[in-house]
Amino acid sequence: MAKRFFDLKIDVYVPGRWYLGEPTHRSGQEVDDIWEFIQGRPVEILERLRIPIFKPGKPLDIEFAGAGQTPILSARAAAVFRQMAPATFSSSQSRSRGSPTLITS
């Protein structure tokens, strides 16, 4: 079966949108390798991550957190990816203060 890739980009022109910071562990320590989430391989996450809000605003269904561009999806967007690519989509839940649970894909 051929591999399928989704090349999503950040849309900075959405008025009033939020911006997310670097993912952190529950202790507040940043993730060691911020680039591991965009390498196209499975990532082992041992605990729920927290995603700080860098600039408050309107949550988006698809967002990219911090300099490492960690993909962050709403539950609604994650459901679409699970349906489109169930064998290759992996996710874990994360929290952002003041917002619903986010899916780190």
Structure notes:
The chain has 105 residues and is mainly beta. It is 10% helix and 21% strand. The protein has 1 helix and 7 strands. It has one helix spanning 75-84, and strands at 19-20, 49-50, 53-55, 62-65, 70-73, 92-95, 102-104. The strands form 2 sheets. Strands 2-6-7-5-4 form a 5-stranded mixed β-sheet. A two-stranded antiparallel sheet has the order 1-3. β4 (62-65) and β5 (70-73) form a beta hairpin. The radius of gyration is 13 Å and the shape is globular. The chain starts with 18 loop residues before the first strand and ends with a strand. The mean pLDDT is 76.
Helix content: under 10%
> Taking all residues together, what is the mean pLDDT?
76
Rg, Å, rounded: 13 Å
Sheet with most strands: 5 strands, mixed
Number of discrete helical segments? 1
Cα end-to-end separation: 21 Å
Question: What structural category arises from helix and sheet content?
Answer: mainly beta
Total DSSP E strands: 7
Shape field: globular
Strand order of the largest sheet: 2-6-7-5-4
Share of β-strand residues = 15-25%
Low-confidence stretches: none
Write down the secondary-structure element order.
EEEEEHEE
Structural key phrases:
1 helix, 105 residues, 10% helix, globular, single chain, five-stranded mixed sheet, mainly beta
